[in-house]
Design brief:
Blueprint (H helix, E strand, L loop, with lengths): L1 H4 L6 H31 L6 H50 L2 H7 L1 H25 L2 H16 L4 H45 L1 H6 L3 H53 L5 H43 L21 E8 L9 E8 L4 E6 L5 H6 L9 E6 L2 E2 L5 H6 L1 E4 L8 E2 H6 L6 H10 L3 H6 L7 E2 L8 H13 L5 E5 L7 H14 L4 E6 L2 H4 L4 E6 L2 E6 L1 H7 L1 H10 L2 H4 L1
Parallel strand pairs: 3-10, 3-11, 6-9, 9-10
Antiparallel strand pairs: 1-2, 1-4, 4-5, 7-8, 11-12
Helix pairs in contact: 2-3, 2-6, 2-10, 3-5, 5-7, 5-10, 6-10, 7-9, 7-10, 9-10, 14-16, 19-20
The structure holds adenosine-5'-diphosphate and magnesium ion.
Adenosine-5'-diphosphate binds next to helix 11.
Amino acid sequence: MGKILAFLKKDLWKIIIILSLTFIQAMANLFLPSFMSDIVNLGIPNGDTAYILEIGGFMLVIAFGGIICQIFARFMSSKVSAGFSMDLRNTVFTKVESFSLTEFDKFSTASLITRCTNDITQIQHFLDMTLRMAITAPMMAIGGIIMAIRYGQSLSLILIVSCTAIIAVMAVNFSITVPKFKMMQTNVDKLNLITRENLSGIRVIRAFNAQATQDKKFDKANQDLTRLHLIIGRIMAALQPLTMLIMNITTVIVLWLGSRLVQSYTIQVGDLMAFIQYVMQIMFSFQMLSMTFMIIPRAMVSVKRINEILDTDPVIKDNNEEDIKTPDNTGKVEFRNVTFYYPNAIEPALKNISFVSKPGQVTAIIGSTGSGKSTLVNLIPRLYDVSEGEVLVDDVNIKNFSQHELRNRIGYVPQKNMLFAGDIESNIVFDREVIESEITESAEISQAMEFINEKEQGFQHPIAQAGSNVSGGQKQRLAIARALINSPKIYIFDDSFSSLDFKTESKLRNALEPKVKNSTVILVTQRVSTIMDADQIIVLDSGNIVGVGTHKYLMKNSSVYYEIASSQLTKEELS
Ligand code: ADP
Ligand code: MG
């Protein structure tokens, strides 16, 4: 809570003004009925317009002042709470951006989205409400009770009974709706998850005619959420008239008993009228209080969910300044006895991996799907941290690099590459400082020039969200061009040629050769033909290295490699 409250510090004086304004507003509300009672009690002397104008004018000023205060308080509290939620959203989003993949796996993307949006809105709503009610409601409730007793002491029993009735109604309301409000955020998460998955997977869903099942999933989540809303709505719908009924019955009884008291001169007419007004004010403020109390639990759930984000320290973060090293950039990559478990996994995805990859060499990694190839290369840019052992770049443990420096040294083409809304150029350049010629060079090497030239706007050709308007092969080529920018010393290609036809692949590899000649190249692939002349080939099987060597060597000495090769190559190629 403290962390979140700290966001309000800079608005402290505004909050004080809001509270003061609402205080004045409550005072105005509290004193108006007592003036009215005076007028009624004393009566207006015949034709004394000056008196009417004086008191009437005074009451008008008070009422008007109260309303002005209320308007300003509302205006300012909206502004404060909106500003607060903007700051909080910024902080939460920045924090989420600092998360490593481990945290993304832990929270799930859908939940992170809900937390950045809906949860913060809940807190904003609560803050807005609290700022406006925190002073007004209790003041009007307590002040109202004091004033009511002052004007109608003989009627206080009615006050006690009707207040008890209202509180009872609120209690029922509370006990039913609060648990539902608490459940709501998890349901919003679920709905978000399904919506996201459905919309991003729309092509597959269409192709397999899976709309019906997907609809059902969505429907279920939607209905769950709707049910909660309905239950809450129904309770409110039932209880609101009930509150009105209690208020009206109270008025009737007060009038009925009061008129007798007036007859017997126990109470004055003006006091009776003031009493009724105070009773109304008391009940109204009870209602306001209960509304605020009702959203507290939901807001608290949101606060907790936001705090979880703010309190999560990313497992991957930079070392202390003095431990950070910046060795010469040669490109050497080394794995020493690396074992890696995914969070919550029982079996390691990689077991005791050791190898050295030197500049000027191509290290190929081959193995069946799920053998751990992508996992292995993901460890080099520190997308995950190793569980045991160490990964070294330029002879320094990558944990002792700044993440920025480490990733700067690596040109990484992930298996699931990603384009972003923008244009071709922005996707290649990707926030780095580059010169024009570098962009064209990268695009030429990656064979992307071919289709860029076909586009009317060339490099300015727009790319749709997630790159949905380019083909898989085109996407892959742009992702390769992106990795070539800045000529890093380490290249990682994770199955990066898989969507290219053989002709384009061989053209690309020929163009790539001089570019990466002095760099370390780590190449994950399923195609034996791609790596026949690699300097070293690492054969992975279920997270273990089961063979290291050249193609020739492995053909003789590794049964796993031989199996993979023989399934792809012709007899002549094998021999
Ligand atoms: P490859 O790239 O060789 O096809 P991966 O490295 O992607 O294989 O996956 C290796 C193993 O790790 C697989 O068994 C897979 O189920 C598991 N795995 C991959 N990603 C994750 C993840 N984010 N969380 C948990 N397990 C994962
Ligand atoms: Mg893979």
